[in-house]
UniProtKB/TrEMBL annotation:
Protein name: LysM domain-containing protein
Residue span(s) of domain LysM: 52-94
Pfam families in UniProt: LysM (PF01476)
Spans traversing the lipid bilayer: 6-25
PANTHER family documented for this protein: EMBRYO SAC 1 (PTHR33648), LYSM DOMAIN-CONTAINING PROTEIN (PTHR33648:SF49)
Keywords assigned: Membrane, Transmembrane, Transmembrane helix
C-alpha cells in the first residue's frame, strides 16, 4: 500500500511539474511574438486582404460593407461577441468576389 502511494505521489508531482513547464513555455512564447502592436492604418493601401487588422472606430458591419464579406463572424471563431471588436484585432476576410472564384 505504501509503495503504491509513493508511486502515485511521485507521478502526480512529475505531472504537475510538466504542466507548470508547459504553462511557462506557452506564456513566454505569447509575450515574445510581437513587440509593437500592428495598427489598422498600416494597411490602408490594401484594406481588404485575407488578413485584416481592425482600425480605430471600425465595427464588423463597416468592415463587412467595406470588404464585401457578410460572413466575418462565421470565419473567425475567436470572435465570441460581434459587438466586442477593438483596434488591433486580426480577422480573416473572404470577399464575395474571392468566394465566387474559389467555387469555380
Amino acid at each position: 500500500m505504501r509503495i503504491s502511494l509513493a508511486v502515485a505521489d511521485a507521478a502526480s508531482f512529475y505531472c504537475a511539474m510538466i504542466l507548470l513547464g508547459m504553462i511557462l513555455l506557452g506564456s513566454t512564447r505569447e509575450n515574445s511574438i510581437a513587440e509593437e502592436p500592428v495598427k489598422g492604418s498600416q494597411f490602408c493601401d490594401r484594406p481588404c486582404d485575407e488578413i485584416y487588422v481592425v482600425g480605430e472606430g471600425e465595427t464588423l458591419n463597416t468592415i463587412s460593407d467595406k470588404c464585401d464579406d457578410p460572413f466575418i463572424v462565421e470565419q473567425n471563431p475567436h470572435i465570441h461577441d460581434p459587438d466586442d471588436v477593438y483596434p488591433g484585432l486580426v480577422i480573416k476576410i473572404t470577399s464575395s468576389r474571392s468566394r465566387k472564384m474559389m467555387m469555380r
